[in-house]
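Need a sequence for this fold. Nothing fancy.
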């Protein structure tokens, strides 16, 4: 079969391309209520420039520091008229998230059933803020991650 044309909407993701260093905090900790995090992420075009490939490592500090490795593909599905993220991170951890795209300087990815969301707020051409939230059984959102990422040379 012939390849589908690359969706023009993919150009909206160009901001994310490159290398990033992130610092922040998470509530994914053992005994502490929150722990510091540091991480690196590299994002580049892949699969005939039709997807962005994201690969990264994030270390959670604390009594027993742990490093979380993750990878995902981020692209655009013309049939859904939505950006889609297909990600994996460690044994048994995987997920799919969707976004309608940028709203001003904000890009939000949420799961199908809206149990988790990742929000990216562009602060400048070389910095963005990322927050991660979980939705509980009570339908309320709880912030579980907050970090600032800066472009690296």
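Here you go.
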């Amino acid at each position: 079969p012939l390849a589908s044309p690359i969706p023009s909407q993919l150009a909206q993701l160009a901001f994310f391309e490159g290398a990033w260093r992130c610092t922040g905090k998470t509530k994914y900790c053992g005994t502490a209520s929150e722990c510091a995090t540091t991480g690196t992420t590299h994002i580049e075009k892949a699969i005939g420039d039709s997807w962005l490939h994201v690969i990264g490592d994030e270390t959670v500090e604390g009594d027993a520091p742990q490093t979380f490795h993750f990878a995902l593909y981020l692209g655009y599905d013309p049939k859904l008229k939505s950006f889609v993220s297909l990600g994996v991170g460690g044994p048994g951890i995987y997920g799919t998230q969707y976004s309608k795209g940028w709203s001003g300087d904000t890009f939000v990815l949420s799961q199908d059933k809206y149990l988790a969301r990742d929000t990216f707020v562009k602060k400048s051409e070389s910095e963005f803020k990322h927050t991660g939230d979980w939705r509980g059984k009570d339908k309320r959102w709880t912030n579980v991650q907050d970090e600032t990422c800066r472009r690296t040379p």
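For context: The radius of gyration is 16 Å.
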